[in-house]
Amino acid sequence: MNGAMIPDQPMREAALAWALRTREPDFEAWDDFTAWLEAAPAHGLAYDEVQFALDEADAALELLPEPVHAPAPAPGYAAANDNPPEPVIGWLSSRRGWLGGAIAASLVLALTSVLWLSPSGERLYATAPGETRLIALKDGSTVELAGGSRIAIEGEREARLEAGQALFTIRHDEADPFVLIAGEDRLVDAGTVFDVRLSGAGVDLAVAEGAVIVNPKGQNLTVTAGGRAVRRPGGRYSLAAVDPQAVGEWSRGRISFESASLAEIAAELSRATGRRFSSTDSATRLSGSIALGEVRDNPRALEALLGVRVRAADADWVLEAE
Predict the structure, then answer these.
(1) Which stretch of 101-110, 147-156, 169-178, 286-295 has the lowest confidence by average pLDDT?
(2) Each residue of 81-95: pLDDT tens digit?
(3) Rounded Cα gap, residues 225 and 209, in angstroms
(4) How far is CA 307 from CA 240, 275, 286, 292, in A?
């Protein structure tokens, strides 16, 4: 798997806008379009990918049923408002072009906000802060992507977590194990439900069922159900016990933390809720569990939950020790 990155959202939106405009019969802004393409090499790639998605949308539209003529009204029929009804075929034909454009645009927006196809064929998924995404694999395995996260999936048995957090429910196949690259670690499934979070240069692995082998050709560390392995900067690992029921609890609307700084808590809350939290306090460390819905609705609820001060600053909610 390569290190291809997902084009940023503004670029995707611009590519979609140009793709839809250049499809219009009366489009004439070719000089402006050429200037946009030449402004950055990534613009051409983004435009090509959006056009591919539009072609796929066009193919989907071909599956729509053809319009059917409405039967002629029976003799003596008159509408209640004395105006004869318009033929159904007229409504369908006059709106089919608009419908096609709307469906195509919707499909491309869905593809570009969640899925991007890299030149190598990887399926690249991303979520915005505060949203989650369930990815179903053909073999029955699933990957649930947390907010503010990004993952690349190659085929059905290999993935690379590039940012954020994901919960994996993997169908075990001893002959073809599922492999996850997370930071500098290679994690190999051994019949497993496990959660992985990237934080800077560190990796946090927690196993709910089965086992995960960390770096089989290196440390060859086996983490079984109820176990947690945290890789710190520098390559050191610490092992601890974890409640299997708490693994992946973010997918059920709750996050827990242990001896985390206010700065770390603020970053996690931003990713999980979609609201912007910040803190410059790396010294104060807290442990606890937070229901995300309550904090999303009322950020100041953290004052009672954590015993901290919460103040609004522009679009941010700043966390400070009391």
Answers:
(1) 101-110
(2) 444 443 333 333 333
(3) 5
(4) 26, 19, 10, 17
Stated length of the chain: 322
Over its C-alpha atoms, the chain yields an Rg (Å, rounded) of 25
| Amino acid of residue 257 | F
- Cα 54 to chain centroid distance, Å, stands at 21
Q: Are 267 and 282 in contact (CB under 8 A)?
A: no
Bridge-based pairing of strands 193-199 and 165-169 is antiparallel
Find tokens 């010294």 and name the residue: 283
**pLDDT for 284-299, tens place per residue?**
999 989 999 999 999 9
Please state, in angstroms and rounded to a whole number, the distance separating the CA atoms of residues 50 and 57. 10
Give yes or no for residue 77 having a pLDDT over 50: no
Q: Which residue has the tokens 């947690």?
A: 228
Residue 185's closest CA among 174, 170, 197, 177? 197
Task: Point out the least confidently predicted range of 65-69, 234-238, 264-268.
Answer: 65-69
